[in-house]
Each structure stands twice: as structure tokens, then as C-alpha cells.
Amino acid sequence: MQHSIAIIGCGNLGLSIANGLIKTPGFDVSSLTLTKRKTESLSPLKKLGVAISSDNLAAAESADIIILAVKPFNLTEVLEEIKPAIGGKKQTIVSVATGVKIQQISGILGDDIPIFRAMPNIAADINESVTCICGINASEATEAAVKEIFNSIGLSITINEDLMEAATVLGACGIAYVLRFMRAMIQGGIQIGFDAKTASDIVNQTVKGAAEMMIQQPIHPEAAIDKVTTPKGCTIVGLNEMEHHGFSAAMVKGVIASFEKITL
């Protein structure tokens, strides 16, 4: 990665992206600048050679690729703040702010600026995020550079902008859905006899194995479930009990409820 990168707004998501980049083999930490109003929490990264600042404009001026990881309601203010730095050397803007369209960003910065929307999740922290990306005004080289960043912290998928809100729900909110499911499994494991750590270890590896199986053997989940459910067995009894209580329906309704909230 030869580009200088500024991550403006290092809250949970911005910091996860930064941590993922730092852990990427061969990544030059000196090419990374992080900003936050109160920089004390970023001091451990400063010791690694990352530039830390509270000056968004200066960070934008020094970067080729600017990742805006601020809250959606702060994005306009930050765009106005960094606008004087944009355009001279055609920096690339990447917004991870939920719900803010590219047109809104270009309306402030200009119609000829390469602008991307990206939606990673907090698994970027361990280089296992999924990131959906869309953009305008970018050359093939610029698009490749942006995808390289997000591929280094997991997997990137290019989509149309009209699917970005759906991508936010499925990929970014979705990690919370999975974690809630895992918490419930751990609670069940404790109830049937395991201590909390052992239950957690079993559930963590089980979920990891299920996901990896779906990645390496691209089959429908039901086809894999069929391998586990034997006639009159304990697995099908458990699955049927969950479905009687609305397991799948609750999951679908939760996804739709999040989507309806984000598209208000």
C-alpha cells in the first residue's frame, strides 16, 4: 500500500479500521494519520509510529485517501472543515457514515472528486470485516487502491449505491445479530452444565466452523443442516423447538426493522 491514509474520526469503527490496517503485513504505519477531538485514547497507536492529531484539515491535506469515520450528523461539518484541502491533488474521499449519499458529499466537495461510500464492520479490528463499496469519479487505479485498503481488513464487495443501506444492515448491524445469537447459545450451554468459559469456547469455534464451511463449500445452509439432522435426533428436535418460538421469523423481522429504521 503506497498511499497515505487519514482516518478522520476514530470512534469504534474508525479505530477498528486503523487496527486492521496496522496488523496488515507490510503496511507502513507512518503512512497513516488518525484524528479525534480528544486524542488521549489513541496514544498507544502513536507509540507504533501512527500520526495522531485533532486537526482534521491538516490530516486531510497530508493524505491521498481520506476515510471519514464520523457520525452521520457530524459529516457535513467535517466536510466543510476539510474542504479547503480537497481538490488540489485530487484526494479520494471514502465515507463510512451510515445513510449519507454520495450526492450529498459531492454537493459540498465538488462533482469531480473521487468519492466512495464503504460499510465495513467492527471485525475490521482483526482483519475479518466484510465491506460493501460503491463510488463515483474514480479511475481503475483509484478504485483498486480503495479496495486494497478494505481487502486488507477482510473482504470487499462492490455494490450499487441503492443497496448501501441494506448492506449496512446485513454486514454492519449483522455482526451484532450474530453476537446476540452466540450469547444465547452460551447461556444455553451454561444451563445444561458448562462453565461460562468452556461454553464460550465451544460456541465460538462452532460458529467459526459453520461460517468457514459456508465459505469453503458454497452450499445452501439447509444442505449443511441436513448433514446434522438425523431422524428422531436431538438436532431436529432443537431446531423445531426454535422455529416454534419464531427463531427464523424473529431474525428476518429484526433485519427488516433495522432496514426500515435506516431508510426513514
Summarize the structure.
It holds the Pfam family F420_oxidored. About 50% of the residues lie in helices and about 15% in strands.
Give a structural overview.
The chain is an alpha/beta fold and 264 residues long. The chain has 2 domains: 5-159, NAD(P)-binding Rossmann-like Domain (Rossmann fold, 3-Layer(aba) Sandwich), CATH 3.40.50; 168-262, ProC C-terminal domain-like (ProC C-terminal domain-like fold), CATH 1.10.3730. The chain has 11 helices and 8 strands. The chain has an 8-stranded mixed β-sheet, sandwiched between helices. β1, α1 and β2 form a beta-alpha-beta unit. The longest helix has 28 residues, at 164-191.
Number of helices, counting only DSSP H or I runs of 4 residues or more: 11
Give the CA-based shape: elongated
Give the low-pLDDT segments: none
Average pLDDT over all residues? 93
| Number of beta-strand segments | 8
Relevant CATH superfamily of the largest domain: NAD(P)-binding Rossmann-like Domain
CATH fold description of the largest domain: Rossmann fold
CATH architecture of the largest domain: 3-Layer(aba) Sandwich
Could you give a short account of the major beta sheet?
A: 8 strands, mixed
